[in-house]
Amino acid sequence: MDRGRRAARLQGVMKVGVLVMALAALVFAAPATADDWWPHPSGASWEYQWSDSVYAQTPTKEKVVVANQSGSSFTLGWTTAGEANASGAIEGFGTMDFVETPFGVTNTNWSSTAPPASFPVLCPTAQNCGNALSDTLYYLIWGSRVPVIWEPLLKGETWTSTGGQLNDVNSTSTYLGTEQVSVPAFQGPVTAAKIRTDVTQAGALGDPYGSGERTVWWVFGVGPVKLEFQHDGGSDAATSTSELLSTSLMPETTPSDANYFPLTKGRTLRYRWTNTKHLKTPEVEQVTVDANLQQTARFIFRSVSGPIRVAAAYIYSTRLDGVTNTAAVSKAITSLKLPKLGPKGRSAAKRNRFLTPFDLMNFGMNPVLTAYPAAGDTWSVKVPSHDFTQYGVRGSSKIIGIKRIQVPAGTFNALEVRSTLKQKGFSFGSGTRTSWFAPGKGLVKLVFRHADGSVSLVQLLK
Questions:
Q1: Cys staple from 451: which of 55, 248, 326, 430, with CB 3.0 to 4.6 Å?
Q2: Cα separation of 211 and 199, whole Å?
Q3: Is 118 exposed, middle or buried (0-12, 13-18, 19+ CB in 10 A)?
Q4: Domain boundary residue among 247, 279, 312?
């Protein structure tokens, strides 16, 4: 596909040179999930005005439109034509390709007019340099193409990314929460998610312009509405800004950013687990998050006291399809005789066992929680599916709402999740499980009313 011709079709009669970047397509095995931090319905448009305090002092207006979309992929096009720009504004047009993934919107390709010769060269050589910072969309993807914005957007999240034609631009982004922001597109202040990104580029002729701190304000249902990039370079360093002048979209209610299952490295929790029939002597275990990379974390369990000597590890990922347990391994020494679990078709060595509080929490299905959990959310086991093969459980979960819960670790306004589980032929693997998750803490209490008449109780001690 000739990306220059595609950009030219968007621009029409504009007679300017075209800079074309040939970039390898990014392929994601997981299915994409719809995202409303950057919606792109057919016909959607955004108008921005951007400037640079050193290299583009005359503000430039540009219009961005949805040029194409197919499945989870979409293309945005922009142009300065017809925007009534003042003399000295930068003329240009281009396109950018994006795809929705389970961890947010990612950029896969771009093409555009070349930046003005007066701009810093953001490559080791000026020849065939495919990098530019002469448009609002370029600022958004600079150093952070995969993803452009992380999802789900929850309190305390930090992620890393790369960008640039040679993937030589590195970034670390931190979600700072929401705040009210005013831009010309709306009559009054709107709620925006604030993301700050530290960007680093080394080896370009234009260093240190390619490095600095970027802050972007995102409005749910609209997309990016304001941007500020403070470039490195000392007392006379440039500052680039962009703000939304108008759009065909309207802000939507911002989803809760409460993090009910934080994956922060170094967190330590201690639980007590009992069962009215089978585990009357309390089992106390401690779990630590010992590794975290891009919102995938490993939890390590060890025994503190009780009849089970266990060592276990669990891996969880937070994505747009929720908090998912992706792996688990455990070893235990115990004289305790807990009832057997299925599924019946598996050998005894490969059947499920309840050895830790997280075994009770994970049992039956994924996800543990939805991405932006809210009262009324429901999900169920699919047949056939990996979960059904693993557990042999039919059932469903529902978020009931927020309930005040008191446990030895304290009192929490916790999210209540109720699951109904049926494991054919195994009454201990059947019943009703109610779990409570507190923001910034995770699981604080669990009650599993087994079909054999026993009740398992898990409580957070500290």
A1: 430
A2: 5
A3: exposed
A4: 247
| Closest to 418 in 3D by CA, of 406, 440, 401, 404 | 401
pLDDT digits (tens, 9 = 90+) for 193-240: 999 999 999 999 988 999 999 999 999 999 999 999 999 987 789 999
For residue 76, give Cα distances in angstroms to 96, 199, 238, 252.
5, 23, 27, 21
Last residue of one domain, picked from the residues 212, 247, 282? 247
Domain count, the chain: 2
* 292 shares a domain with 428: yes
Name the residue with tokens 């640079």. 52
* 68 SS3 class: strand
Q: What is the mean pLDDT of residues 359-378?
A: 96
- What is the CATH classification number for the domain harbouring 219? 2.40.360
Please check whether residues 240 and 348 belong to one and the same domain.
Answer: no
Asked whether residue 305 is domain-assigned, the answer is: yes
The pLDDT > 90 percentage for the chain reads: 87
SS3 279: strand
How many of the other CB atoms lie within 10 Å of CB of 462?
11
Report yes or no on 263 lying in a domain: no
Please check whether residue 252 lies inside any domain of the structure: no
Q: Do 10 and 157 share a domain, yes or no?
A: yes
Residues 231 and 290 in one domain: no
Q: Residue 63 falls within a domain, yes or no?
A: yes
**Is the Cα torsion angle 279, 281, 283, 284 positive or negative in sign?**
positive
| Whole-angstrom distance, CA of residue 371 vs CA of residue 37 | 14
pLDDT of residue 162: 93
Whether 359 and 407 share a structural domain: yes
pLDDT digits (tens, 9 = 90+) for 95-145: 999 999 999 999 999 999 999 999 999 999 998 899 999 999 999 999 999
pLDDT tens-digit map of 52-91 = 999 999 999 999 999 999 999 999 999 999 999 999 999 9
Do 220 and 315 sit in the same domain of this protein?
no
- Give 96-115 as a DSSP string: EEEEEETTEEEEEEEEEEPP
Cα 405 to Cα 114: distance, rounded to the nearest angstrom = 59
Q: Is 377 helix (H, G, I), strand (E, B) or coil?
A: coil
Q: Quote the tokens at residue 30.
A: 């997981």
The number of C-alpha atoms within 13 Å of 76 and in the hemisphere containing its C-beta is: 26
| Residue-number span of the structural domain to which 297 is assigned | 268-460
pTM metric for this prediction:
0.89
Give bridge partners of residue 450 from the DSSP assignment.
Answer: 431
pLDDT, position 179: 97
Token pair 């079709």 is found at 9
Q: Which residue has the tokens 């600095």?
A: 212
Distance separating alpha carbons of residues 218 and 212, to the nearest angstrom: 19
